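Residues determine shape. Take a concrete instance:
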Amino acid sequence: MSDALHISVRTLVEHVFRSGSIDTRFRSSSPLLDGTRIHQKIQKTYQDGDQKEVYLRTEIPYEGLTFSIDGRCDGLLFHDGEVTVDEIKSFSQPLEQQEGEGYPVHWAQAKMYAYMYALDHHLPEIFVQLTYVHVETEEKKYFKKSCSFSELESFVFEVLESYTPYAKLQNGHLNKRNDSIKALTFPFETYRTGQRKLAGAVYKTILDKKNLFAKAPTGIGKTISTLFPAVKAMGEGHLNRVFYLTAKTITRTTAEEAFDRMRSSGLCMNTVTITAKDKVCFKEETICQKDYCEFANGYYDRINGAILDILTNEKGMTREVIESYARKHTVCPFEFSLDLAYAVDSIICDYNYIFDPRVSLKRLFEEQKKSTALLVDEAHNLVDRGREMFSASLNKDTFLQLKKDFKGVNKAIYDAARRLNSSFISLKKANADKNEFVIEQLDEALKLQLVQFLEIAEQVLQSETSQNLLEAYFMVNNFMKIVPLLDEHYVIYGEKNKNNIMVKLFCIDPSKLLKQMGKGYRAKVHFSATLSPLPYYQEILGGEIDDYLLSIPSPFSKEQIDVCIKPVSTRFRDRERTRESIVAMVQSLIKNRPGNYLIFFPSYQYLLAVYEQFKQEDVETNTLIQTSGMTEAEREAFLEAFKPDQKETLLGFAVLGGIFSEGVDLIGDRLNGVVVVGVGLPQLCFERNLIKDHFYKKKKNGYDYAYVYPGMNKVLQAGGRLIRSEMDHGTIVLVDDRFLQKQYQMLLPQEWSGYRVM
């Protein structure tokens, strides 16, 4: 019996016929909207009896496979006894730039539909028409040809012949994958305490098509406990794809290692890691144009060969693997990873590929979402990342610069920039007595000016290159994409800085939009060691009343950890006064308990002040210091210095909430203690106070939402670096008198409750 393979007409022809180069020189801001509008406009001109958006489907057996091909053709026209399949395409470049008689990929799409209709209706001949429409002028260009059924049949089989090597590879992989999953056992000798419970909850969540919020302690192996059940659900046909979403590179590596471990236990599964474009770009500058970049030039002519090659030979497609195949086939590593994302079983990537309305993987159709699970690692990070993804801002300086750049060069841009600059000046004058101020609603005149600016900039950018104009265009475009989302979850505010003024659309509560962007997926699993308090995270991350909640106690004993509280004030006003007692406490600690320590501070300035004082009094002890903008090599060197069984003490000074306070595994004697200075509260600022006021109005504890919960989250993350396995022992010192107050005590983990006061 042949294996059935479902594929849409568009996916099939794009795979076989795509060609040419990546060129992001400039694209109109709304090709999708324009395309839809144009389609509808043309379809309205159809005559009585003509049909639009006609669903067509056929099954074709070919080389041991059965291809189930379907799609919607734009139009079926019935005139003078002729049947014509109409394929509508919108475009934005000038008509004279269109070469030849339509693009092969468009002809292929129309011919596939023509074949399917002719087959169903036993037609010996059918007409195929391409209708090209310019998005602005609405000028039309028609190409029409007659095709015999036998001609179309030959064409369809040629297409299948080109696609079959890839189809066979994928089909063979799918069978191997599912067989290997059925035989897969948990890739460790035993489950750690709490692991089986978490794995069971994840599996049930996927089975029941629900969402799960899980607080699971550091060190139990959350990554494997969420991935293993998701993989098992895939083998049983509940899932086709799993996204493992992270906020940091270091947690991506943990997911890659978990897949490697399962593969070494027999799993046959393809995974791809998507790395940010600017990190993987092979060129000096990230300019995706064929005349600058050989990896963009002719990309689509070579990509199918590259995909076939990597899928034939690799299973874990990490950044390094993708880069080596990208060089081999001369293709852009970033676009290569995105194309692979649609071909593999699991994708490891940043949150923004799913949740950011301006970035997400658009080609993942609704149908595919239903068989996709999202595993959201370190989900506490999604709160502020969500706010960031759904917010946008504009600066007066941007338009002032454009005004200077285009004076006497281009009047239309100059005038548009001048008008916007004036609007910002008026706003500044209207709020002369305040540096920060809330704007009740966005001025309609300003919105109109921004739309006009986009239209003028689009025209200029079609033929000219200006980096400042391009950046301003994208900034305004991003801003205008957020404008329709404005509702009670937003605050619009202005902020003055010398002569500049910024206007920000600030998403205070990202819950609604996170929920919206995550809609349609079979299951979502949010997990973290510091998802505390759970109801807060469930609410702010867009959870629903009937979601599953799980809180797993720490598997480690209280005897493994000695928690001390040093009740001195680390409030900003007291820092200078209490600095000496903090240094004295550290000296006493390392004298009585020598070893490797991480000391975390709420700010870099505070870190430097204590560090300098410590060095004045102690030149002997080895110290390391986190610096801003550390390269990956410098980060690795910092962690590498924490060696087991060291004879001398090592102190690493780091920032709370920074690169070393999350996702860092220093097992055994590599880390003997953690000192956390302060309760981690974000700096008092206008934006945080807006959050506080917003939630107070909703009868919530706004101060906790804006300051306490995010602050204590950093404390718990930093403390969590210490005990990573059943064998680890060590000391945690919490430096601040507020750790003895009830509202902070309630947020401390159970295993820290046996603390002593120093």
Observations:
- The longest helix spans residues 149-183.
- The first strand starts at residue 3 and ends at 8.
